[in-house]
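Project outcomes to date are best conveyed with an example. Our students and postdoctoral researchers have been running inverse folding experiments weekly, and each run begins with a structure described purely in tokens. The record below, which covers 292 residues, was selected by the lab manager from last quarter's runs and is presented without edits.
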């Protein structure tokens, strides 16, 4: 059985929720404290054993390529000034990454399809940039371990509230072994009150190349786009696809409130600023109480 060594990171979205900031800057480059969101995703892939990464971009995402490129002048300046910790952080961003353009925004399924020649006939991972996962064992690594055990596609899930089920792909499970579910059906963004469960797909996938047989059809799904969830369901009708309730805390950076909450939580984990930030937050809370 082939090992999972390649990963796709779709990053071609328009980022309209963060306008006007994303008019000139890709949303994937918006920083959580001092690190772009996409770097957290790339680091998770590397820590999970991925050797080749392809980022699916658009013609407005050149900043992503520049970020992961070598900046010789910057590195030499940091060396000369003895800023070794900063130099280490800069070099951590340098990995062997490939790029391909999605010429039209036709949905997540189409973005994954764009990387089909890079993947070839191998199992592969998909990591979405709207979800950052902090876990003792990287979220993607947990899914890869499940793939190694089953030889089947594995979709990362976590539980969401009833009010959130219309925002995600939802799984309809029919058997459970530990944290792993065999799935009867995958549903993309069901209407409120119709979701078959509260297990939501959380932006981490390990897929067999059979998914491309269905993405090749370019079938239009929810929102008038080519949906990856629909193709996963098509594969599920032919061979087993599992859902895995991965361990770890997931941060939603795909919308404004989640992005701000993530920034605050990561800042409180930063030894350089956490004490001052905590004092600031305490003062703000007291001010709010007084005004109330």
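After processing, the design step wrote out the following sequence:
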């Amino acid at each position: 059985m082939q090992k999972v060594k390649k990963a796709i990171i779709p990053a071609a979205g328009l980022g309209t929720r963060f306008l006007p900031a994303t008019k000139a800057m890709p949303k994937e480059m918006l920083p959580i404290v001092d690190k772009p969101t996409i770097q957290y995703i790339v680091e998770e892939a590397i820590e999970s054993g991925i050797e080749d990464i392809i980022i699916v971009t658009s013609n407005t995402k050149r900043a992503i390529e520049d970020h992961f490129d070598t900046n010789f002048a910057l590195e030499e300046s940091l060396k000369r000034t003895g800023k070794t910790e900063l130099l280490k952080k800069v070099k951590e961003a340098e990995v062997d990454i490939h790029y391909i353009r999605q010429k039209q925004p036709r949905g997540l399924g189409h973005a994954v399809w764009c990387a089909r020649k890079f993947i070839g006939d191998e199992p592969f991972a998909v990591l979405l940039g709207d979800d950052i996962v902090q876990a003792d064992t990287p979220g993607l690594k947990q899914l890869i371990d499940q793939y190694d055990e089953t030889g089947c596609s594995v979709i990362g899930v976590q539980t969401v509230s009833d009010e959130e089920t219309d925002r995600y792909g939802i799984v309809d499970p029919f058997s459970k072994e530990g944290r792993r579910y065999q799935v009867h059906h995958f549903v993309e963004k069901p209407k409120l009150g119709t979701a078959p469960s509260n297990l939501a797909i959380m932006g981490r996938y390990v897929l067999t190349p059979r998914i491309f047989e269905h993405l090749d059809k370019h079938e239009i799904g929810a929102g008038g786009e080519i949906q990856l969830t629909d193709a996963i369901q098509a594969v599920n009708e032919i061979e087993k696809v599992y859902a895995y309730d991965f361990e770890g805390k997931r941060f939603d950076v795909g919308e404004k409130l989640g992005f701000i909450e993530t920034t605050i939580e990561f800042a409180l984990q930063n030894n350089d600023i956490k004490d001052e930030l905590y004092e600031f937050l305490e003062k703000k809370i007291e001010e709010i109480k007084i005004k109330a």
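The mean pLDDT is 86. The two ends are 62 Å apart (CA to CA). The training component of this project remains on track.
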